[in-house]
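Worked example 3 (structure in, sequence out).
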């Protein structure tokens, strides 16, 4: 297992429990105790967790792991709104009436609501806001996974390895956003959210990322999935040309939409 993947798992465990022991992390990663101890030391040195006897614990306060996580929903909902709406409309145009789709929580994917509400779709989403919008407007059948409420992102996050709702829902398309996107893959900022999102990656024929041009920035370090798992990326005309070329070189279809900036 690559170091980046081990670090993602370690941070995810630390985020979910008071202390993650070396033995637990060895079991999760298959790495040796010596390797896990080196990983914990490295993450401690860059301020992502606190090294303790026999394992690691989450940090508390303003320099805790939370400072590395995805910005809260309300903080980013109105940012680049024109681009997000144009991207969402282009995504909705790919959907067939009555189709089954999965939509991950996020401010860009939330913008899908008005464009799909009356399409009689079967929608699995972990976004509370999108679910409520679709229930109140139109005639989609909405399915929520089981789990806990992630207050800041207003998402349902399943802590269970076997989520029967997700396992029994198969979709034509999975629409998801991201904290960032770069050569290594789709990047998330919250290790807890990554676990939930990765479960849904396996449940769709096509994986389609909705990312505005601001997401092509070198931020975040937690890889949700490599570019090879993406079928399509929909972005806007502010995306750097070299970034679009990078995606196409990786075999990803790239749709670039124009939009009217918000006045």
């Amino acid at each position: 297992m690559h170091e980046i993947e081990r670090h993602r798992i370690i941070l995810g465990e630390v985020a979910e429990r008071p202390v993650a022991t070396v033995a637990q992390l060895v079991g999760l990663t298959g790495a040796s105790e010596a390797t896990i101890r080196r990983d914990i030391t490295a993450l401690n040195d860059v301020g992502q967790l606190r090294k303790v006897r026999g394992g690691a614990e989450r940090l508390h306060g303003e320099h805790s792991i939370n400072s590395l996580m995805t910005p809260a929903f309300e903080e980013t909902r109105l940012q680049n709104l024109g681009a997000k709406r144009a991207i969402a409309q282009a995504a909705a145009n790919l959907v067939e009436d009555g189709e089954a789709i999965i939509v991950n929580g996020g401010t860009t994917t939330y913008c899908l609501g008005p464009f799909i509400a009356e399409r009689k779709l079967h929608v699995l989403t972990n976004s509370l806001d999108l679910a409520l919008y679709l229930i109140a407007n139109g005639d989609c059948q909405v399915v929520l996974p089981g789990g806990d409420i992630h207050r800041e992102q207003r998402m349902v996050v399943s802590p269970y390895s076997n989520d029967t709702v997700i396992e029994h829902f198969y979709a034509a398309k999975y629409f998801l956003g991201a904290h960032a996107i770069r050569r290594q893959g789709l990047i998330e900022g919250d290790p807890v959210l990554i676990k939930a999102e990765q479960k849904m990656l396996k449940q769709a024929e096509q994986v389609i990322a909705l990312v505005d041009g601001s997401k092509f920035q070198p931020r975040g370090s937690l890889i949700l999935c490599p570019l090879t798992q993406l079928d399509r990326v929909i972005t806007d005309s502010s995306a750097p040309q070299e970034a679009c070329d990078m995606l196409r070189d990786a075999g990803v279809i790239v749709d670039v939409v124009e939009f009217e900036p918000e006045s």
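Notes: The first helix runs from residue 3 to 16. Residues 61-69 have pLDDT under 50 and may be disordered.
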